[in-house]
Write a structure and sequence with these properties.
Layout (H helix, E strand, L loop, with lengths): L2 H7 L5 E7 L3 H12 L4 E4 L8 H4 L20 H6 L9 H14 L6 E2 L4 E7 L4 E6 L4 E9 L21 E4 L14 E5 L3 H13 L2 E6 L5 E3 L7 H20 L18 H14 L15 H18 L3 H7 L12 E3 L2 H4 L5 E5 L5 E4 L3 E4 L3 E3 L2 E4 L8 H4 L2 E3 L6 H4 L18 E3 L12 H21 L4 E4 L1 H16 L29 H13 L5 E4 L3 H10 L1
Bound molecules: ligand NA7.
Amino acid sequence: MSKAQQNKANPGAHEFDVVVVGAGFAGLYLIHSLRQKGLSVRAFEAGAEVGGTWFWNRYPGARCDIESVIYSYSFSKELQDEWRWSERYATQAEILAYIQHVADRFELRQDIQFNTRVSATTFDEKSERWTVETEQGQHVKARFVIMATGSLTVPKPIDIPGLEDFKGAWYHSTNWPAEGVDFTGKRVGLVGTASTGVQMAPLIAQQAEHLTVFQRTANFVLPAGNRPLSEDEQRHYREIYPQIREKTRYSNGGSHYQVNDKSAIAATPQEREARYEENYRINGLAYLGSFNDLLTNEASNTTAAEFIRGKIRSIVKDPAVAEDLCPNDHPLGSKRLCIGSNYLETFNRSNVSLVNLKRTPLERITAEGMRTSEQELPFDVLVFATGFDAITGALSRIQVTGRDGLKLKDKWKDGPRCYLGLATAGFPNLFITTGPQSPGALANVVVGIEQHTDWIMDCIGYLQQQNKSLIEATPDAENAWVEKVAALAQLTLHRKGASWYSGANVPGKPRVFMPFVGGFGNYRRLCDAVAANGYEGFVLSGCTAGAAVEQEALA
Ligand code: NA7
């Protein structure tokens, strides 16, 4: 009987090869891959179900802003062939159904403990084991801990004073009631106009008596071009899947779109207009690939931004509202583009109004509603789409203690530091998936999850082969990587956008641009080269008697 099978037969076990924190897209593929290697694994999941971000974010209109056919696992051809995506951009419900299907199909649930939040994990040098502690006080031990905690899982606390005074109902997008919310006949105030608010507003407006949208920063909103996927299209995708997947693995953003290898500024105005028009109509986030310098050349960026502002002015009938909706304080793409359906058109409805908080700031929430510097507005319901303590939020809520009592939160007090975005010096055998200093959510995160998982599996295999029990990033390699990630970001217009990519949305959070912007394909090649060079930048050590015996058993 393999160790993995033994574990399934023994739910009370408290010693594992690997503990995985989280059972979303990353956690599930990790469990599957670890089992394939014959390793025992226990995953802890705070939610009552698999899905992670896609379990919690069930607000009206929640959809992925990446196309379904590529926002999906590629590791199993059978899974790929049997699953049918009904729309170009899947709803949260459909993505969650897919993740649940994966959990059932590969029988992953038996290694997951639900409704369990990990509170701490501590490395013991003598035994070379991590102790993982849950909020319920449970302790388990593992040789490796893999954080699959996601980038968008912890809500940013609501930082508007007075919420406790409000007499009506209020909801946050990240923790939406499973039974839904009926807005019929209600006066609704919505705070937040980025990806989430943009998806919610049109649906709330269809039900509510009146919807007031509170906008602090106007964003670049593009139409998703969503539509049902026909049987023929699905068949076509299944035929070309091998090529699509290969493209996503080596592309800049983990997608299959062709990036135009031409500078916007070198193109004629007619060429620019034609390309922007085509991408605007049908390609969502790929609008950024209309030309090769939109994120590096300010003049080029302005041409793309001006095109979107023109669209806003042509769609929104009231010129004053249109002007308020025009983003003008950050370059296009320096914050995530917002992909929606009928968002701008929603402001042409008679039951929708916009409050520009740049002109009339929010002062506080009152018993009856909201007060700005200019007016007091009564509401029955308040909805917050105010975002996340992104990328590091979930990790910072776990007390992680490495070698010599080093606390991750102390090490990261001025910003996160990871080598390859996968490991951090002082914390042996701790891996982080799609975390800071990796492409993370800047690229298609499912492609990133598969790449990280495969890399970690190869790494554990290499340790076994070399008869080593520990792997740890060196401070030198980590420093060089962190500098490289920061220098790359400085070459782009991301440096000018105050976004969750850099922690700028959370007051007091260190301001560090966290994702690797050098392109997903390049990142993969760098990670592969590190592995090919015997895990350059890492120290491999250890091999206690206990670990050696275990490794023999696994061989
Ligand atoms: P985001 O992108 O962090 O957006 C949050 C929105 O909430 C944004 O419009 C913020 O305005 C607004 N916000 C936050 N706090 C306040 C306060 N106190 N007052 C007024 N407005 C506020 O989160 P999302 O959930 O929309 O999207 C996150 C990611 O999920 C997205 O990028 C996709 O990858 C999926 P601000 O811009 O700070 O002025």
